[in-house]
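Morning run. Coffee first, then this:
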Amino acid sequence: MDTALAPAEAASPLAVTAWRDYDEVACALPGMLLGDLELTGPIAEEADRLWESGARRVRLAEPVDLTATDGLAAARRTVRALSLVRDLTARAVLVEWDLRLDPARPEDPLVLSHLQPPRTLHGHPDAQAALATWRGGHYLGKCLWRNGPGFFQIRDRRWGNLQRFTADEPHYRTAVDALAYGAPQQDVPRDALDDFTGERLVLHLGPLAWWVPYRVSRWTQEAMAI
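And here it is:
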């Protein structure tokens, strides 16, 4: 994966707290706290660094606000936070985060239901029910993508049944690289962006489009079963 700082990924700091264990009781033991950290680099690199340092539980200090995307800088901050949640979810890290939805887009909890469920959900007409559904239906590998020889494939179970999409057009794969950490919508090939949008594989956040699926880093069962 190319971890160079993408044009849409400015180094907006993300404040997190990290621990070496998933369990809250274990996290209180001496030596389990990695401390309060400020992430300023590319998110792909920061997620790798957290994992390699032993982080297995990570708490975001500020809510991820899908309504705060009017300007490019605000959209970048939201995309960075979502990307961190996505990339840590792919590693089966326990992510503690809070989410504020755009009330005009009540379907977003389903769009994001492959991510580690948030602690709190705001901006939904029935937030508690939506959060309970999210928690009850979450598992690793719910919406992922993988590379094959000359193609890439998306496997999506967010809607209850398996939907599988395979593409061999090179510019579609290039579009995924651009979208992974947010890209200005005009910089993505229109046919690829339209197709991904129609399948709810991208989230439009102000001037940016963001790639929803993760490239899974830890399998919970044999890859052929996924």
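The two ends are 21 Å apart (CA to CA). Good start to the day.
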